[in-house]
Amino acid sequence: MANAVPVVDDIAYEDLLVDPYPAFRRIRDTAPAVLVKTANLIVVTRFEDIAKIERDPATYSADNPASLVNRVMGPTFMRKDGAEHAVGRKAIEPSFRASTIKEHWAPLFSDICRNLIDSFSETGEVDLFPALAAPMASLCLMQMLGFKDVSWETLALWSQSLIDGAANYSRDAEIDRKAMVAGKGVDDAIDAVLDYHLAHPNPTIMSSMAHADQPMAIEEIRANIKVIIGGGLNEPRDAILTLALGLLGNPAQRTAVLARPELWPTALEEAVRWISPIGMYPRRVARSIDLSGVALAEGTQIGLCVGAANRDERRFADPDRFDILRPKQSHLAFGAGPHFCAGAWVSRHLVGKVAVPMLFERLRNLRLQEDNAPVIRGWVFRGPVSMPVRWDA
Ligand code: HEM
Fold this sequence. Notes:
The protein is an alpha+beta fold. It is built from 16 helices and 13 strands. It has a single domain, classed as CATH 1.10.630.10. The longest helix has 27 residues. The chain is globular. The protein binds protoporphyrin IX containing FE.
């Protein structure tokens, strides 16, 4: 008979935000699924269990009518299963094709990155978060969406407010209010360009949605654009900083990748394994099941903690170490199964082929500031929130 879900009640929430990895290790070693009291959630942290879950969407459903994502953003395909999910996924697919990335997004991403680095390259020191990573991720997403006359700061604020609203389990009224204001801003930005994209088919996500074989209702367009704003900005931003951090902290690996540029894609994969920008995402248990010896009752909400699974020593040797030369193993940073990240290839290009290579090529003797260490935070979403650097200007 399967065991009951064990409870861990002595992990402080702040510890999860500052450095979740010791807690992740403890939870992984405790059981396949553990109720983490401070988060009030059952989390799954072992690599093989999450891989198994993602192969079985009939049992572990992404469809959750009670989800805060649905409440804050509306009816999105990301929180649907089967055919309903597939229709939405197919609608946005033209914007994410390899040929679209190569022909349309790659040159735009390079221009955006060049301009940003030009704007500070003479200064000799910046915080890479506001100077490069945040505007790069925001401006690239803006191009992909097909928005006009929205500043990168506004898009970044909308993204953060929507994410906060979707994670507002304590129902803080101010967080809810900000999410609603952001939602209204996104709706207005969509209204401002929808007719243009209907009249002029183009590679943007707005255009793909507007011209989908199975047309999306306006409320679906609104919800799905919000999901993409919530999920497509902070993650490449965090991946840019994490990859840069990994290389700045490991001079031999930095030398290796600069000498052999074909290693950049591997370096990006290792960065998002090491510190996964999305540390956890939810599923709903659709029928009572035994998960590797632990009983999960129908209707239970679980968190798939890919940030922990990507450091599972059962799969990755010396998992806490950033090592671009480690034996090749797939990871879960982009999820798995039907909901595998739609933006994975775009992000691989943006981060691993444009932003971080250009940063290291352009800024001579780039280094962390000895007196001003980077700060990394979060566990559901995790990444550097400040990363001051210097170089020889
Ligand atoms: C390093 C960057 C990124 C990481 C680590 C990442 C990670 C993920 C993960 C873990 C999921 C699965 C979530 C779930 O199943 O609940 C996901 C889904 C998704 N991502 Fe990303 N993401 C990144 C960048 C992007 C970008 C740039 C976009 C769009 C421009 C994007 C669009 C999406 C969409 C639309 C989904 C939902 C897919 C579906 O439900 O079928 N992502 N992402």
